[in-house]
Specification:
two-stranded antiparallel sheet, mainly alpha, single chain, globular
């Protein structure tokens, strides 16, 4: 037995139920992975819509799912600009992701024996549906003066829904189903740091969305708070990598590799964010001056990396709950000379 690892006794590999043990299904796992992969470009297109200020290029919020097939791409680009195509591409992909999520929820319900997995699939579906409703409200209530607020909510919850959908391929993977929880030296502390890092990234997301809309001109406190949270997230990402290099956690690749990926994403997001700021991203969506291609590209990349970082730490928190037990490793009892 490897030092620092204590397997929990009498724990099955997989999720038991009255009908039997949960089984890995490659087809269902692939569908969940494909659905998650389809959500990320939806996030990226949504970020590009905000970067180009194209959220209201079409005042009609609801159109038929096949609307883009009836559009003349060349004529529309000349008449309305590329932002019109990007905005409708975002809406079209939203329809597709919704259909994928419906199939995923029904499929999981039909074959999975694990109650938590079935519940997560339906919660993810509801989240995808609510994102569509928020997008509709952002357009419909713009004239009433609530468009900006719903745009901010839509941007925040989009990242959260992406992380929630990404939990499905994890929970349907072979490694998750066959995992045996271990009592690992340093495990409880690692779980706490993961949860704290998740909270910091979510806080940074809220402040970042605020800056995306209002800019940093009259809201310098938001900029400094965003920078402080970025530094805190970086410090915790480094801490996670250091802790997974110590005995006990070092042998768990399910925790070590996501920690290293998270650190890379955080470093990349900081670098891209600095470049976006250099090209004027601090002006916010309220500024109506022309947007350069560099600014739109770097700000959108900043949003995309932020979504990936949030997804990574959320899945890492889930992995901790699956691969680590809440108990501590029994320390060897020291014996003093007097006691001897």
């Amino acid at each position: 037995m490897t030092a620092g690892l204590t397997p929990t006794a009498n724990l099955p590999t997989g999720s038991d139920s009255a009908k039997g043990r949960e089984r890995y299904r490659p087809g269902l796992f692939a569908w969940a992975l494909f659905t998650t992969a389809a959500v990320f470009p939806l996030i990226a297109l949504g970020g590009l819509v905000t970067s180009l200020r194209a959220g209201m290029v079409d005042p009609q919020s609801v159109r038929v799912p096949w609307y883009m097939l009836t559009m003349s791409w060349h004529d529309t680009a000349e008449a309305h600009g590329i932002g019109y195509l990007i905005e409708h591409g975002h809406r079209q992909l939203g329809w597709i992701v919704g259909l994928l999520a419906i199939v995923l929820a029904v499929w999981v319900t039909a074959v999975s024996r694990d109650r938590i997995t079935r519940l997560t699939a339906w919660v993810a579906l509801v989240g995808v549906g609510m994102q569509g409703i928020l997008g509709i409200l952002r357009v419909e209530l713009n004239r009433a003066g609530w468009g900006l607020e719903f745009a901010m909510i839509h941007g925040i919850t989009g990242h959260l829904v992406f992380a929630l959908v990404a939990a499905m391929p994890l929970m349907l993977s072979r490694g998750w189903i066959e995992a045996v929880p271990l009592a690992v030296e340093g495990g409880p502390r690692f779980r706490k740091v993961c949860r704290l890092t998740l909270g910091l990234i979510m806080g940074q997301l809220v402040v970042g969305v605020w800056l995306r809309q209002f800019g940093a001109g009259d809201w310098s406190w938001a900029l400094w708070l965003h920078l402080f949270l970025a530094a805190a997230v970086l410090a915790h990402a480094v801490m996670l990598v250091v802790r997974t290099s110590r005995p006990g956690l070092r042998t768990l690749g399910e925790l070590r590799w996501p920690s290293m990926i998270l650190l890379g994403l955080v470093l990349g997001q900081i670098a891209v964010g600095a470049a976006a700021w250099w090209f004027g991203a601090g002006e916010g969506a309220m500024d109506h001056r022309p947007v350069s291609a560099e600014r739109a590209g770097f700000t959108t990349a900043h949003v995309g990396l932020g979504a990936l970082a949030l997804m990574t730490i959320f899945l890492l928190v889930l992995r901790c709950s699956r691969h680590l037990t809440a108990g501590r490793v029994d320390e060897p009892m020291s014996v003093t000379a007097g006691a001897a």
